[in-house]
């Protein structure tokens, strides 16, 4: 797996979520997130059995995550007690191009920036949440990370996700970005591929749910 793409994603994700500065490890990257369900995440560009087993056996803090760029079935035989799988995903990237933003009638779009994060919010005619997303700069030159792209169930299949992506891409281009990176869900992968994004690798997540692991 291309470590530079992973680095760009980790750096931008940390900026988007206001997490601690990324720590580069010999095997990948560590980010302290500081949330009850996600205290720390370790990101591994490659699936190394000895390394992953070692991390699982020596980690005792619940809320520690491993993000590995491989298929779930690869690491499933290595899973230690009290570690569980989260939803699968994919690491994707795209060259950014300016695009027109089109919203269906009755929807309103608002964008704003704070620091290195730009957010887009779509509301319906009553002012209720319909869709949102954000983009954050990465320390990797020319790259930004798209994050938390979401459309409310009642408003799906109307092009709102596409409008949010176009809006964020235009903002990123205006700020000098050339490349976008994101971690897609299974459901989101199809949208991003239709927008010209390329899938680089599956992204498997496991989390320690109990302090009994490794004892």
Automatic annotation (TrEMBL):
Keyword annotations of the record: Transferase
Domain N-acetyltransferase: 58-215
Domain of life, per lineage: Bacteria
Pfam family, one: Acetyltransf_7
One GO MF term attached to the UniProt entry: acyltransferase activity, transferring groups other than amino-acyl groups
Transferase recorded as keyword: yes
Family annotation (InterPro entries): Acyl_CoA_acyltransferase, GNAT_dom
PROSITE patterns: GNAT (PS51186)
Annotated transmembrane regions: none
Identification of the protein by name: N-acetyltransferase
Organism: Streptomyces cyaneochromogenes
